[in-house]
Design a protein that fits this description.
It is built from 15 helices and eleven strands. The chain is an alpha/beta fold. It has one domain (2-362). The strands form four sheets. Strands 3-2-4-8-9 form a five-stranded parallel beta sheet, covered by helices on one side. Strands 1-5 form a two-stranded parallel ribbon. The N and C termini lie far apart (57 Å).
């Protein structure tokens, strides 16, 4: 029996060693840390960089920080709003709550659940086009909204960390020896995560676009052809979404919040493919429909659906612009928006966009 147990132990030793190494990597990365802890560090003024790989509590995390930060200038939207960096603006009180709203009805929910003292003075509202077409919005299931979130699951994290390492998504050296103030396997392994100002870094994907899921926009083009997954066909603007927008604007007006809305860009070739298909008539109608909704409140709408002065290479996929795209967009806002007058750092943006300028993706590092 002792001999048998010795053989079993000898067999299991390498397995235990491997499990121990990867468990150590997950632990060292900080993947297990709670959103409350990281939000507390951010609110204490620490340069925390958070990129969790094995659970997505973005809505919850962004609401925690926004509640405590009480930023005077707040950005709110989906992942298509995350490239607005604090350096783009002159406001000393800025937070990017991108990811805090994933559907049209979640904008108002986010704001209504902030403490009264934490509501912003100015709101940059990023409104994805597909929120206003029936194929996407009418098919939404509308669960009872709350800010419940996923807890850390050690077993699932260990299993997925092994899979990700085998797939070349991170190195053990990086995970076992993370940079200071960096938390989560995505942050230490790929450099992907949220800066303290709420903006996002795509990390390794910026240097290796061939590793993305939409290389040469093949996935976006497929969605356009089939009319699915945020690229549903629509001829008209969806009325119920405009009605929800009016409820949101009434809330903002009633609480003294000034609103400047941005309709975000598609990669130029993706937009042209959509236009050529003839299946997206609602896109040309949307800006006027939103302006009609916003006008009674004295709020603004800016349409950046097609930005021909940007390059396909400056987009992460068919509908997510990178830092340079949003820097150009923000410069245009500086020239067009009266509500944002004086709140945009045009000097920084102009210098950053110059050929000799610093890489914008490093702007919020630290």
């Amino acid at each position: 029996m002792k001999k048998f147990l010795a053989i079993v132990a000898l067999f299991l030793a390498p397995v235990a060693l491997v499990v121990g190494v990867f468990a150590g990597a997950v632990y060292a990365s900080g993947e297990w840390r709670t959103e409350e802890e990281i939000a507390g560090r951010v609110l204490a003024g620490e340069p925390a960089f958070l990129g969790l790989a094995y659970r997505d509590n973005t809505r919850y995390y962004k609401h925690l920080v926004a509640s405590g930060k009480a930023a005077g200038l707040l950005v709110l939207g989906t992942s298509r709003s995350m490239q607005f960096h604090s350096e783009f603006f002159t406001s000393p009180s800025f937070y990017n709550a991108g990811g805090g709203a994933n559907y049209v009805h979640e904008y108002r929910f986010f704001l209504e659940n902030l403490p009264e003292a934490s509501l912003p003075d100015t709101l940059v509202l990023v409104l994805d086009q597909y929120f206003f077409q029936e194929g996407w919005s009418a098919a939404e299931t509308l669960p009872q909204l709350d800010y419940s979130h996923y807890p850390f699951n050690a077993g699932a994290a260990l299993t997925r960390s092994l899979q990700d390492w085998a797939g070349g998504k991170y190195s053990l050296r990086a995970a076992l020896a993370p940079a200071p103030n960096t938390y989560g396997m995505a942050a230490v392994g790929r450099g992907s995560g949220f800066y303290a100002d709420g903006s996002y870094s795509y990390g390794r994907l910026l240097d290796h676009p061939e590793e993305g899921s939409d290389v040469a926009f093949h996935d976006s083009f497929d969605r356009i052809q089939r009319g699915v997954n945020r690229f549903e066909w629509a001829a008209e603007v969806y009325g119920p979404s405009l009605e929800e927008m009016d409820r949101l604007l009434a809330f903002c007006s009633g609480h003294g919040i000034r609103v400047a809305a941005v309709i975000p860009p598609y990669a130029p070739s993706v937009y042209l493919r959509m236009a050529e298909s003839g299946n997206y008539g609602y896109l040309s109608l949307l800006p006027a429909a939103l302006r009609e909704c916003f006008a009674p409140y004295g709020f603004e709408v800016f349409d950046f659906t097609y930005m021909p002065d940007t390059l396909d290479a400056e987009y992460l996929d068919g509908y997510h612009g990178g830092d340079r795209v949003y820097a150009r967009l923000t410069l245009e806002l500086a020239a067009q928006s009266s509500l944002l007058a004086g709140q945009i750092d045009t000097g920084y943006l102009t210098a950053a966009l110059a050929p000799s300028g610093n890489p914008l993706r490093l702007a919020s590092a630290g």
